[in-house]
């Protein structure tokens, strides 16, 4: 491997690992705020116990998200300095806003929430968790605005070989951001819903605190089902924008080699990348045209035709991503997300009228289902970033031109191994803390106790 390959692997590993924590943090923050609101309005002690229990797990996950996210900031300057030099004026603006506005909001009010149980009034304490939760969503928006600029650059002009910001409002209201943000937020709720459901199922399977976890399980099922519908609808909207802005990504996701009207949605394909064709392609008739254009007869561009058009515009080169990777990550992303929503729908039916499933397999499936949205999220981001290749900034800068000229194979390899090992240790710490505080359950606490004593070390 050369420096480019190692740098891509390093950034890919750190990004996917970091994003394991982000959607759970966003979704859990709103669920915890909702439970505390229910306690504030009703005064029922079970809502307080659930607020404290899920709050502890939320805080552990939040801390891990912060730790793992910091590394990415340094990689822009160390491994991708030519990229930073080219786009820093534009890309840095939403990142700075995220740090100055969103992270300040969430970290400040989260601190007030952690230590304010016996120091703030109930109303102010409730406001603190809601402001922290809102901060997590705003943080996601600014990060997505920066990433969306890489997918669809707007609000800039090129001066002396650098992209300079001309319209921050155009960057923040980028059409790509406007479709990506709801998709990510719904995905976060699906992730948090599956997490809460799985852990609730673990308690119900052991008949511990049945009343409490029946309540949280039903809440999680409702959140997951609504989120699943939201993910599907926002994903449909996102696919249409992607077809318009990055047709090669859409074509690669469907292994569609030639421009085609009334195109079918591919369920399974065996292709010949070298010769640009499929040997086997099982399809849903006209499905791709509906997904991409909202029309049964809509025309969708194919890989070979797009390649020819890109060569005419950008010059000689291979403008195709790794077709097999794009194809299967797209399918698996949809499949895992759909399974998670289906699990929620079946769960709501089985728990109607206050019932609980008699079969232990139902609880085991719910526990295993925790992994489904995490897999869907990770595969979705791999598809999003790998499907954009060979571009770092679509149409402006290729990935090969973005890597630092002073980086060397040895230093990047050492840091790649080092970060991977450190993240492995952090994963073990995260799992150990979660298992510990899940095992303790929603034990009785006084108002003088901090919500997550483990973080005081």
State the end-to-end distance. 41 Å
Quickly count the helices: 15
Structural class: mainly alpha
What integer value in Å does the Rg equal? 23 Å
Helicity range: over 70%
Beta-strand segment tally: 8
Main β-sheet, spatial strand arrangement: 1-2
Give a verbal description of the structure.
The chain has helices at residues 3-19, 22-42, 45-78, 81-115, 122-151, 168-172, 175-205, 210-245, 247-254, 287-293, 303-314, 323-350, 360-368, 371-386, 409-440, and strands at 156-159, 162-165, 260-261, 265-272, 277-284, 299-300, 391-393, 397-398. It contains 15 helices and eight strands. A hairpin with a 2-residue loop joins strand 1 and strand 2. It has 457 residues and is mainly α. The longest helix has 36 residues, at 210-245. Residues 445-457 have low confidence and may be disordered. Helix 1 packs antiparallel against helix 3, helix 3 (45-78) packs antiparallel against helix 4 (81-115) and helix 4 (81-115) runs antiparallel to helix 5.
Concise structural overview:
The chain has helices at residues 3-19, 22-42, 45-78, 81-115, 122-151, 168-172, 175-205, 210-245, 247-254, 287-293, 303-314, 323-350, 360-368, 371-386, 409-440, and strands spanning 156-159, 162-165, 260-261, 265-272, 277-284, 299-300, 391-393, 397-398. It is mainly α. The two termini are 41 Å apart.
Write the layout of secondary structure elements.
Layout: H1 3-19, H2 22-42, H3 45-78, H4 81-115, H5 122-151, E1 156-159, E2 162-165, H6 168-172, H7 175-205, H8 210-245, H9 247-254, E3 260-261, E4 265-272, E5 277-284, H10 287-293, E6 299-300, H11 303-314, H12 323-350, H13 360-368, H14 371-386, E7 391-393, E8 397-398, H15 409-440
Antiparallel strand pairs: 1-2, 3-6, 4-5, 7-8
């Amino acid at each position: 491997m050369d420096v480019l390959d190692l740098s891509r692997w390093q950034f890919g590993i750190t990004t996917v690992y970091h994003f394991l924590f982000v959607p759970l943090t966003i979704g859990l923050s709103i669920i915890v705020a909702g439970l505390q609101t229910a306690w504030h309005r009703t005064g029922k002690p079970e809502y307080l116990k659930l607020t404290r229990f899920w709050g502890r797990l939320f805080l552990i996950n939040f801390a891990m998200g912060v730790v793992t996210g910091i590394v990415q900031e340094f990689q822009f300057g160390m491994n991708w300095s030519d990229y930073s030099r080219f786009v820093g004026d534009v890309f840095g603006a939403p990142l700075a806003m995220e740090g100055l506005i969103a992270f300040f909001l969430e970290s400040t009010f989260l601190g007030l929430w952690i230590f304010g149980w016996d120091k703030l009034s109930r109303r102010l304490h409730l406001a603190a968790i809601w402001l922290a939760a809102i901060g997590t969503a705003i943080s996601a928006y600014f990060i997505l605005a920066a990433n969306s600029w890489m997918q669809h650059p707007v609000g800039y002009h090129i001066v002396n070989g650098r992209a300079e910001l001309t319209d921050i409002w155009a960057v923040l209201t980028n059409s790509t951001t406007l479709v990506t943000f709801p998709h990510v937020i719904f995905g976060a709720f699906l992730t948090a819903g599956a997490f809460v459901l799985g852990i609730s199922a673990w308690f119900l399977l052991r008949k511990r605190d049945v009343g409490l976890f029946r309540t949280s399980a039903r809440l999680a099922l409702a959140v997951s089902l609504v989120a699943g519908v939201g993910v599907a609808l926002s994903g449909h909207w996102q696919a249409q924008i992607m077809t318009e802005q990055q047709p090669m990504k859409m074509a690669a996701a469907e292994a569609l080699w030639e421009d085609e009207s009334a195109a079918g949605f591919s369920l399974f394909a065996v292709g010949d990348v070298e010769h640009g064709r499929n040997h086997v392609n099982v399809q849903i008739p006209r499905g791709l045209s509906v997904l991409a254009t909202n029309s049964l007869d809509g025309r969708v561009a194919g890989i070979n035709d797009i390649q020819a058009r890109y060569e005419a515009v950008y010059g000689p080169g291979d403008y195709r991503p790794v077709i097999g990777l794009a194809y299967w990550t797209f399918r698996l992303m949809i499949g895992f997300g759909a399974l998670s929503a289906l699990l929620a729908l079946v769960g709501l039916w089985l728990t109607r009228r206050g019932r609980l499933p008699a079969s232990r397999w139902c609880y085991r499936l719910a526990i295993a289902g925790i992994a489904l949205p995490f897999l869907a999220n990770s595969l979705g981001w791999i598809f999003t970033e790998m499907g954009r290749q060979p571009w770092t900034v679509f149409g402006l800068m290729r990935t090969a031109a973005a890597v630092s000229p002073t980086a060397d194979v040895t230093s990047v390899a050492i840091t790649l191994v080092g970060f991977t090992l450190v993240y492995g240790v952090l994963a073990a710490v995260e799992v150990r803390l979660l298992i510990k505080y899940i095992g303790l359950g929603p034990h009785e606490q006084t108002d003088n106790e901090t919500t997550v004593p483990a973080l005081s070390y």
